[in-house]
């Protein structure tokens, strides 16, 4: 081999090595400060009727390029400030599968991230109202036990018994310091309301049901079943109290499963569950549960558009505070300042 050929080969090798090194440097993972997970979007991410993700997308990721993650239902979007988000899918299996794929993806460094699980939900009329936004103090799995028909047990007794062996995967306390921060930063958020939601609330005699939208806290009950009726609502409250959690105020389908995935991979101290109520978990005194499940045209609860906006209005205050004060938050939830 001639000297020229050896030199040319060495030069090509150096260029290839430089190119490879440059590629590795360019592929350094994105440092995520806050990850926002929604469960569904109705259509596009912007420009049409908003589902759970659209207001978040329009606030943080209008110019972001989608990041494809193998195993996740939808792409992840990130902005220059380290705020990332995605539509994870509805139900425990789909949402948690997406979350695990995202956590394990080498393009993203979520080791210091705060996780905000967001979406719409139901609420019992004795404790919540249409349009409210609620931070979880506890997340509880509605399943993982035994159930039977009421007529097959003793009259008036519970029809659910928890199954042993699931103690570590059915009950998740949210970090109380994080919840306190959330309420400190968001409790006074001005919330949207609508004439249709106001009219719908009047069908219910409960004082809580007739309230205007507010920001509150309580237990979020995760179940794949859209349970309805006063009996199922009472059972959800029974489970919450049986496990030592706060009053049940939100019914949803994903938070317990997502929290479990995050907890196993890096702990759950930085997980938040935020939900907006778009329906009551039971009918009013003048309708049966089946009538409530299958309402006549024009008889559905109003306020969906306002509620999905409310969730983002509340949640973004928390996101922006964490990102804006990252030096105080990166190593863990800081102590609350004195009142």
TrEMBL record:
InterPro entries referenced in this protein's UniProt entry, alphabetically: Nucleoside_phosphorylase_sf (IPR035994), Pur_nuclsid_perm (IPR009486)
Q: Report the Gene3D superfamilies cross-referenced here.
A: Nucleoside phosphorylase domain
Ordered alphabetically, the record's keywords are:
Plasmid, Signal
The GO terms describing molecular function are:
catalytic activity
Q: Does the keyword Signal apply?
A: yes
One GO process term, biological-process aspect: transmembrane transport
How is this protein named in the record?
Purine nucleoside permease
**Which species is this UniProt entry from?**
Azospirillum oryzae
Source lineage: Bacteria, Pseudomonadati, Pseudomonadota, Alphaproteobacteria, Rhodospirillales
């Amino acid at each position: 081999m001639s000297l020229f050929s050896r030199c040319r080969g060495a030069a090509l090798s150096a260029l290839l090595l430089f190119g490879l090194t440059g590629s590795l440097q360019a592929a350094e993972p994105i440092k995520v400060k806050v990850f926002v997970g929604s469960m569904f979007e109705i259509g596009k991410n912007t420009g049409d009727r908003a589902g759970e993700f659209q207001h978040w997308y329009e606030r943080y990721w209008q110019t972001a390029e989608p990041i494809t993650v193998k195993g996740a239902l939808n792409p992840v979007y990130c902005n220059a400030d380290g705020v990332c988000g995605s539509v994870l899918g509805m139900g425990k299996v789909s949402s948690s599968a997406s979350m695990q794929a995202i956590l394990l993806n080498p393009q993203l460094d979520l080791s210091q991230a705060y996780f905000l699980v967001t979406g719409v939900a139901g609420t019992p009329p004795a404790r919540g109202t249409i349009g409210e936004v609620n931070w979880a103090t506890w997340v509880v799995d509605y399943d993982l036990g035994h159930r039977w028909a009421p007529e097959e047990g003793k009259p008036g007794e519970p029809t659910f018994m928890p199954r042993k062996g699931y103690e570590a995967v059915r009950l998740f306390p949210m970090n109380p310091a994080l919840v306190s921060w959330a309420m400190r930063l968001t409790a006074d958020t001005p919330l949207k309301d609508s004439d249709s939601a106001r009219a719908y609330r009047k069908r219910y005699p409960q004082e809580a049901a007739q309230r205007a939208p507010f920001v509150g806290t309580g237990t979020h009950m995760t179940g794949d079943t859209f349970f309805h009726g006063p009996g199922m609502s009472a059972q959800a409250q029974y489970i919450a109290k049986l496990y030592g959690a706060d009053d049940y105020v939100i019914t949803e389908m994903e938070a317990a499963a997502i929290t479990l995935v995050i907890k196993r991979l890096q702990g759950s101290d930085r997980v938040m569950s935020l939900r907006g109520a778009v329906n009551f978990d039971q009918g009013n005194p003048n309708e049966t549960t089946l009538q409530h499940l299958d309402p006549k045209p024009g008889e559905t609860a109003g306020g969906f558009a306002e509620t999905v906006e409310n969730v983002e209005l509340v949640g973004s205050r928390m996101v922006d505070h964490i990102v804006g004060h990252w030096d105080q938050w990166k190593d863990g939830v800081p102590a609350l300042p004195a009142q």
